[in-house]
Amino acid sequence: MTNTKNAPAIDKLDHASQKTISAIVTPKIAEGYLAASANLRPVPQKSVRKILTDIRGGNFMFTGNPIKFAPDGKLIDGAAVLSAIIRANTPVKVAIATGISYAARNAMDSGAQFKLKDALVNNGITRANAVQAALNGIQEYENGEFEQEKDPFRPAITIPASLDFLAKNPSVKQIASDAENLSRKLGFLSTKQVATLLWIFAPVSTEDSAEFFKKLHKGYSDGEGDPVFVLREQLIVNKDAMSKLPNRTVLAITVKAFNLYRSGETVKKNLTFVGGGTRAESFPKAK
Question: How crowded is the C-beta side of 50, counted as CA atoms within 13 Å?
Fold first, then answer.
């Protein structure tokens, strides 16, 4: 790392290759780098102020800890240094690393781990807590986490993967909002659980899904063996139970109740789901 020339512009960096150089980053170059931020988390202003003070006082030291770029050209680390360079309006020598994977960046993070919520907020997503919960639940379902025989090569749920999933499925934002509201009304299903169920039910019938949750909330019965009423009573008991039903079981019996509600069938006893063992059931499909 002997290069002490001005750093190349963002579009001149070799992002595909794993390499590290040292170079002088000017305020203009820093602006270009920051504009390519992956927005994985908020820029830590306390760190910016500390670095800014060091730069202005002539005490900033080249440590070799690099500004990092992912193979897709996104800035994934170093926003605090770049922000300080811009505010100080002073060129600074830093290390620049390219070709760093998002997974490696997470592993190297010695501070707070990147959080999906922070990335959502930085990307202008409102109700970020609810959207984060919805994304986690829906992606678990889509990735086969509820299946008895899990695919060992199923994709990992990472921040970039979650943001990409949201971009391809913008309806998740409305699902998250509806799920948060329903969760508060129900009191016995989390936002994550409701969002996952709304996602599962949507391809079958959004109207029936809305009526199902309305009935689950109001608690009225259409007669003995009403599957929605039976489910409601089970979930109320489960809420305060010392040993709660696993998340997969809660979702499975709710899907079963939804299917029975749509077919007009009744139940004679509590809804069940065998999640493991020799008599294990496959996770039910909404129909």
Answer: 7
| CA-to-CA dists, residue 190 to 84, 178, 194, 218, 274, angstroms | 41, 12, 6, 17, 22
34/128 same-domain check? no
Domain count, the chain: 2
pLDDT tens, position by position, 241-273: 989 999 999 999 999 999 999 999 999 889 999
The residues, any chain, with a CB within 8 Å of residue 104's CB and separated by 6 or more, are: none
Instruction: Establish if 284 belongs to a structural domain.
Output: no
User: In terms of domains, do 163 and 92 share one?
Assistant: no
For helices 206-218 and 247-263, the axis angle rounded to 10 degrees is 110
pTM of the model: 0.66
Q: Which pLDDT tens digit goes with each residue over 135-177? A: 999 999 998 888 866 665 666 677 878 888 999 999 999 999 9
Q: Is the pLDDT of residue 276 over 90?
A: no
Return d(Cα 287, Cα 284) in angstroms, integer: 9
State the residue range of the domain holding 68: 10-112
Residue linked to tokens 């994550």: 192
